[in-house]
Each structure stands twice: as structure tokens, then as C-alpha cells.
Amino acid sequence: MKAIVTHGYGGPEVLVHTDRPDPKVGPDSVLIRVRAAGVNPVDWKIVAGYLDPLMYIHFPLIPGWDVAGVVEAAGADATEYQPGDEVIGYVRKDEVQHGTFAELVAAPVRTLARKPAALSWQQAAGLPLAGLTAYQALRRVGGRAGETALVHAAAGGVGSFAVQIAVARGLRVIGTASEPNHDYLRSLGAEPVTYGDGLADRVRALAPEGVDVALDFVGGVVDVSQRLLKDRTRMASITDDEVKAAGGHLVWVRPDTADLTALGELADAGRLTVPVHAAFPLSEAAEAFRLSQGGRTRGKIVLDVS
């Protein structure tokens, strides 16, 4: 099979489009013919070596955790899926080596769910990691209908999912973003505010009594969030360890079939869309990394594989 491979840590330049052996399929896994793979910041951070203190990472390494594709074969005890089934997955395993930037990937069934019919292959590939992050962060703070949520970096890949999920659950959403993204946030159902100095005053102008929950997808906003929260423990961050000292929650997304299925149901009900900022052929994964590193995309970056 063709795959993107690196033989050591480095920048996008270490990625090579080459041939690799087809994956072995364990008893609780399925073999997926990849149609598209999502590109997330964690992918280039792994290749750069930033996660080396946290995870066992082996070379040669095929990056990638997000996938959308078609089941080609099922392991001996993988009874949940049959060849021909269309699936999506956040294929994070205990150790990092055999990722989704390839024509074939072996995925444990615990990482998969059925592909939403309403989404294209590109959109479906962009959903799992970012969608699950938003879904699980909102659940961790207990966001409920009728409450007000403050979402930091609301126009980003994770933030735009958090806005849509919160709105679907009946929350009022105030989202921070640069002014060029305000109309985009309004289209998702959020009330936009500009981030930066004076943010607390701008949020107070919209919610004089404060907010019920806060979701941080950018970092550096724990203090301002704490000033705005009615209950300071109802904050989750995916980037900032300080949130734990403040009584909130640090969220590291987990593979979860039930959560991924719930996201797919929202998509099929027309309550969740996946904006795709750019799509690259598999051979141009390095360019996808460079775009992701710029940090200015609105929507997902994906690789077209098939």
C-alpha cells in the first residue's frame, strides 16, 4: 500500500510518500480501505516529537488518527462490521506507529462508528477527533439546555463543533473569534465576541450575570474565564494545565463509539456540519502539515486517499 512515512522526528520535510506492507488485522480490528483522512495539529506535533514524553512512538511512523473509509476485512472477533460497511474513526491506539495516512489501516472496533450518510468522505474524515473533543469537553462541564456557554476559539476546528453541539442541546453560545469570523459564528448559531484585551467586558455586555460553562480550545484564557463563570469548576480546556489548579477539567479526547455515533446522528439530522477548509492528495501530506501549522484555517484539513 501507499502511505505517508517518517523515519524520525522533524518538520513536514521528513514525510515521505512511499510503499509499506499492508497492515495486519487483529481479532478485534477491521481493515479499512481509506477514502479520506483528517489532518489535526496533533499529527504534526507527534512528527515533531512534542508527544514523545507522553506516548510510545515507533519508527517508521505512519501519522494520522482520523479516518473515513470502507471495511475491507474483519478480524476473527470483530463482529460489529462486515466488508463493505462505511465507517469513520478516531483510530488512536496505545502506541503510535500505524496511522491513517495510508491506503489501508487496521482499526480496533472500539475506535469506529458508522459513517453519517449526510457527510461526504472529506467531511466524515474531519469529524472524529475534533468532534469528539468538543463533545466530550461539553459533557465534562455538564452543559445543559437553557444555560450559557462561552466557547474560546469558536471558529476553529474544535470550537466550531462545540458551538454546533451546544446549540443542538439548547444552550446559548457566546463564541470568541476574530472579527472576520463573526458572520461564520452567527451562521452556526453563536453570538460572536472579539478575543483579546477587554474580552471579559464584552462578554459581560451580552451576559451580565456571567456564563454557566466555559470551553477553552486555545489556551491562555483560564483567568478571564474564571472571572466570568458562575461556578468556577465548570470549565474545560484541551490546552492549559492551569485549568486543573483552578478547579476545572483538562480534557484529552478518547476514542468512543457511542460518542462518535451521537455525532453522526447530529450530522444526519442536519444539526452538525463539517466545514472543509482544504483537501490535499495523500502525496501532499507535507503541504497539509504546513497549512495546519499556520493556525489560521477555518474548518478541517483532509487528505484524499482513494
UniProtKB/TrEMBL annotation:
Record-listed E.C. numbers: 1.-.-.-
UniProt keyword list: Oxidoreductase
Any GO molecular function: oxidoreductase activity
Listed InterPro entries: ADH-like_N, ER, GroES-like_sf, NAD(P)-bd_dom_sf, YIM1/Zinc_Alcohol_DH_Fams
Domain spans labelled Enoyl reductase (ER): 10-303
Protein name: NADP-dependent oxidoreductase
Gene source species: Streptomyces celluloflavus
Taxon lineage: Bacteria, Bacillati, Actinomycetota, Actinomycetes, Kitasatosporales
